[in-house]
Amino acid sequence: MSQDAPTYVMRPIGFVRSPYRDTSEIPKGPGAEHRAEGALALRPELEDGLQDIEGFSHLFVLWVFDRSSGYELVSTVPLDQETPHGVFASRSPRRPNPIGLSVVELLGRDGPRLRVRGVDMLDGTPILDIKPYLSGVPAEKVRRGWVAEAEARRKEKG
Amino acid sequence: MSQDAPTYVMRPIGFVRSPYRDTSEIPKGPGAEHRAEGALALRPELEDGLQDIEGFSHLFVLWVFDRSSGYELVSTVPLDQETPHGVFASRSPRRPNPIGLSVVELLGRDGPRLRVRGVDMLDGTPILDIKPYLSGVPAEKVRRGWVAEAEARRKEKG
């Protein structure tokens, strides 16, 4: 990438507590369900930023793939090992900016620590931001491209 | 924030083309609808990363609030000017890491340029990442905390 582009320096607002120590333990690919419980442990000095968060059932979490390095513009992913796809059309961790995005269910709060369900991050993952989940695209309007095709192929194969 | 935390340097993968030149032009607050058309103009050298993206109807866009500076842990926002809320319980631009998140509808692609509907970013906004939108939380399971309360209050007032 050209060197004259502006750059932005991000600092973690906290870290994920999760049962997963290795990426191999995280459910991936077709039918993967993320039901694991964990926590979003914020830096104590940021606790005031959580004011009124308890009223939301779900949160977006933006985090860093900190144990991944470099990126590939096109690669194969666990869901479809036959055909490579573009990095922006997949959730590959090897991205130009290694930011992950997860939706978690908020179970409760203890000061600067949020108890959540649905973590798919490694223990110790740096968190960049937390936002309230307000609404989604209606299911009937979502087209899921190669992901839907790969799932259908796998179903046919049984 | 403490200075010994790790930091991550992000570089834009491209820039938003939008009809909005000033934040005052962007629909905000209750009932705001984002129907504006625009484009996500990627750096040409990253075009291969878009392979197979045309199959998805909607995309997550992660971007930088580059015309905002500093952060406030608690502040008032357009939707509720009576009660301040925590930054992680709102979409305030003045965040510890000034990252924005939008869901846009993909209309088409011209090489490294994606035509999209639903931009709520300023023209020239730096893009950090694009991800396929795969599914949402069912509407009946989403609790929207103070946002729902503020909307209800405004409706009562007519």
Give the rounded overall mean pLDDT of chain A.
Answer: 92
Sum up the overall morphology of chain A in one term: globular
The main β sheet of chain A shows up as: 6 strands, antiparallel, barrel
How much of the sequence of chain A is in beta strands?
25-35%
Total number of beta strands of chain A: 9
Oligomer designation: homodimer
The strand order across the widest sheet of chain A is 2-3-8-7-4-9
Radius of gyration of chain A: 17 Å
Keywords:
homodimer, 158 residues, mainly beta, 35% strand
Explain the overall architecture.
Two copies of one chain form a homodimer. In chain A, 8% of the residues lie in helices and 35% in strands. Chain A has one helix at 145-157, and strands at 8-10, 14-17, 37-42, 58-64, 74-77, 80-86, 99-110, 113-117, 126-132. In chain A, β7 (99-110) and β8 form a beta hairpin. The model of chain A has no long low-confidence stretch (mean pLDDT 92). At the A-B interface, β1, β4, β6, β7 and β9 of A face β1, β4, β6, β7 and β9 of B.
What is the topology?
The structure is a homodimer of 158-residue chains.
Chain A: E1 8-10, E2 14-17, E3 37-42, E4 58-64, E5 74-77, E6 80-86, E7 99-110, E8 113-117, E9 126-132, H1 145-157
Antiparallel strand pairs in A: 2-3, 2-9, 3-8, 4-7, 4-9, 5-6, 7-8
In short:
By secondary structure, chain A is mainly beta. In chain A, 8% of the residues lie in helices and 35% in strands.
